[in-house]
Design goal:
The chain is an alpha+beta fold. The chain is built from 9 helices and 14 strands. It is globular, with a radius of gyration of 19 Å. The relative contact order is 0.14.
Length: 281
């Protein structure tokens, strides 16, 4: 059963009532945030970059020592959720694998669909005000300590959500994390991209989640004649850039219009980048 505005499906395609419990109270995803997930945008019934998200889900699971079903085993659940959806033209689709009870043998896996928040749609155009916050470790430390799971997309999102609450309590919308040496990392739910003239730059995939939307943007930008680069960045690079954006799989691309309370422009480039990414209205 599904009410159309929220849909839940098991991997075999069975639809569940979203108002009914699915996880046990002792599921380790609930107790300890143990599990992995992926999020992508569905536009007019088509899930963007689904193959890449299924692959990244598997990579995150491997990093956490969790065995999840193979990518193709998720597709019946995804298709069931897409067919059951009766909401708007843009749906946020989540693929979730919770570790399950401590003495269980398999994770609890399901597909969740919900309406894309209006704030995400609005920020694509109006932009986001960000604060720069230190994440508390260096890139080198995170790279040498795989148990920090810096490059995995896990259910343990407490720090990320706390950072967003801190931003909103201080007159901002979002955050860009820096490492302890001042290197630009990522945002709580987004990757960071900047422009220098006709060159797009993003930080290396070190101690951060590999950005699927960044990769898609860079492929399209190269085809359109842009140069693209991956290199370490600092706060000074953000200030000096012709434009700064946060990219993610649901909001897609939002211009940064202020950093630490100081306004900044996007170089009139956001519209062009939106077209490269096929950002819907």
């Amino acid at each position: 059963m599904a009410d159309g505005s929220v849909v839940v499906a098991l991997l075999d395609g069975t639809l569940l009532d979203p108002a009914q419990p699915l996880l046990r109270p002792d599921d380790l995803g609930v107790l300890r945030g143990e599990g992995v997930f992926e999020t992508t945008l569905v536009v007019d019934g088509i899930a963007r970059d689904l193959d890449e998200h299924l692959i990244r889900l598997t990579v995150s699971a491997e990093q956490t020592g969790l065995t999840v079903p193979a990518p193709d085993q998720w597709r019946p659940g995804v298709q069931a959720a897409l067919q059951a959806w009766t909401g708007g033209s843009q749906m946020v689709l989540r693929l979730i694998a919770s570790r399950g009870p401590e003495h269980g043998s398999e994770p609890v896996c399901y597909v969740l669909g919900a309406e894309l928040p209006m704030a995400s749609r609005r920020q694509r155009r109006s932009g986001v005000r960000v604060l720069l916050l230190e994440r508390g470790f260096t890139v080198a430390a995170a790279t040498s300590a795989p148990w920090l799971l810096a490059g995995a997309k896990t259910l343990s999102y407490g720090v990320n959500m706390a950072a967003l609450r801190h931003a909103r309590a201080n007159g901002a919308d979002d955050v860009i994390f820096l490492d302890a040496d001042g290197r630009v990392l990522e945002a709580p739910t987004s990757s960071v991209v900047l422009a220098r003239g006709r060159t797009l730059v993003t930080p290396p995939e070190e101690a951060i989640l590999a950005g699927i939307t960044v990769r898609r943007l860079f492929r399209a930008a190269e085809s359109a004649g842009w140069d693209v680069q991956t290199e370490p960045l600092t706060a000074a690079d953000l200030w000096a850039a012709d434009g700064v954006w946060l990219t993610s799989s649901a909001r897609l691309l939002a211009p940064v219009v202020a950093i630490d309370g100081r306004p900044r422009a996007d170089g009139a480039l956001t519209g062009e980048l939106h077209r490269l990414l096929d950002v819907p209205d």
